[in-house]
Amino acid sequence: MAGFKKLIFLQLSLWLTFSLIGTFFFASSFDSAVSKAQRSSQVMVTQYIQNKTMENVTPEHIRQALASGNVFSTFIVRDFNGDTVLNINAPTPLPFLTNIIENSINAIRPQFSVNIAKDIKIEFVINAQSQAQLLQQALLLLFVLTALVAFIPIIYMKAIYKRLNRNVSITVANAVDVYITQNQVTESIENEFNTSKMQALSAELAPSFNRLAHFLKSKQEDIQTAAQSIKQEAYKDVITGLGNRNMFVEYYEHQIESTSKKSFGTLAMIRCSELQVINQTRGYQKGDEYIKSVSDIIKHVSGTYTGSQTFRLNSSDFAVILPNVPTKEAEHFGETLQARFTQFQQNQELSSVANTGIVPYETGKPLGELLSVVDNAMSMAQSKQANAWHIQRESDLVNNVGAGFGNQNWRKVIHDVIDSKRVSLMMQNIMPIGKNVKAYAEIQARFKTEEGQMLPTASFLAMAEKLDMAIEIDKLIIDSSLELIKSRNFTEKFFGINVTASSAHSDQFVIWLERRLLKDANIASKLVFEVSEFGLQQNIKASKRFIDMVHRVGARITVERFGVGLTSFKFFRDLKPDFIKMDASYTRGLEEDKNNQYFMRLMVDLAHRIGVSVFAEGVESQEEKHIVETLCLDGVQGYYIEKPKEI
């Protein structure tokens, strides 16, 4: 292609060179012809007037002599004093190309003649129209001929180049097809270009193609290595370094579900029961540390089993595959995990750590069915006690008899807690900032099994919500709180009680609560009911009915976890809460996050304008407490201020 461009450049250069040379030649010829015509005209005019006087040369004689108008384009006659006697001006425009050349060389110039008596002076310009036409035609002919000579080889060479290029392309395409045919049955590039098959195409290309084959092999190896590295990173959990859900699915499908070799083993799912509570009360950094610690415990216990694999499925769930481990041995695995979790719970002062569901598996078992069964086992474990484990045995899996048993067992446990009123109340104070600020102590509930074991609070409340039993739990907590306040004579202290959104939006619950509070009117004025911002937003009309009733009996309202929704201040104008409690996510790292500081200060200013006090929760350090104080909040709550304690 570069050679063809050089050919075009050379031809164009030659064409321009010959055109310029030809133009110069014709221009010189034109100048010579015009000069000769001018000299002839001057001699003729001089001879005509040489022996004549002005009386003999009249304008009429001259007009008759110039009647044709083909000799002169300009003819001026002057007398002895230089006055113009006759002026004939009939300029004829020259052709375009000739005019350009004439402007360059100035060939046509005025000529002068004088008689012997010097009383007749004539100035004239000849008419060079005929010479100009000849020059124009010669130039056009020159350009056409030189263009043909220059461009015909270019057109011919272009056709040859296209044909040659097409032949080369076909040859290369055929060679590539041969190579693809040789390698299409394998996943990796093994064969080089077959020289014998290439001989019919082009033996000269074979060495280059073989070098290309080696290059492709090396690049394929690089790509495979990079892809494996990317896959490992994509399949790795950042916090724990374990494989994620994608790796778990791939491992199960290749090593268990689709393998031709018979195998059996145990699948365990471990669910971190306190992650949400820790994230909300202590911050997400503490939540990550909690997950990392649970991961270390699982890896340590499962590492004693040959071929064990551990994965993190989502934010709170881990999966452990124990190949060739029978159900009896899996019981020992569950007991060991429970013991380690209980030890960690005591060290970290948690209400629970994690629960474990265990099921056996065998080759060909679909993953979806197995996960459904192990999730059912997890529900059973959560309904027992803190850090409990449960094995879903094969006898429970026949014809899917055990389906839904986890939910049924939870329902039984929750009913048993309600009927037996096995609820333990904890208290966490909100520290006021400022002398005139009214704060309160938040009451937190813990639930126990029939054997006195503490149930995982987050799982218990989640299952109660799922089974439509949250209203009964809220009634139990409120009743227990009121009885405790009366029995301990806490009439001077203010207490906050959490209420679920489903209860706040229930007309029956609102009627029950109003009657219950009116029964103890002196205590009602000491109560503050906490409802989440998100829950209140779900039904503004029902939320307003609930808040109006609470205010009617003398109690107050706190909007907790404020800032995670899209609340507008029309929301406050309509509902008129007494307090808002900023979500813990705004407190975390507050000393370094200027955006959170700005947002909290804006919320404080606007809330104070409408008479709403603002609290911060999840305060975990001296720095966070100091920043909260500078932002003019009304109170702080968190583990740095006070941990939940028994009332």
UniProtKB/TrEMBL annotation:
Domain EAL: 407-647
Keyword set includes Zinc: no
InterPro entries named among the record's database cross-references: Cyclic-di-GMP_PDE-like (IPR050706), EAL_dom (IPR001633), EAL_sf (IPR035919), GGDEF_dom (IPR000160), Nucleotide_cyclase (IPR029787), Rev_trsase/Diguanyl_cyclase (IPR043128)
Transmembrane segments: 134-156
Keyword Membrane recorded: yes
Domain GGDEF stretches: 263-394
Top-level taxon in the UniProt lineage: Bacteria
The entry's keywords: Membrane, Transmembrane, Transmembrane helix
Gene3D superfamilies: 3.30.70.270, EAL domain
Protein name listed in UniProt: Diguanylate phosphodiesterase
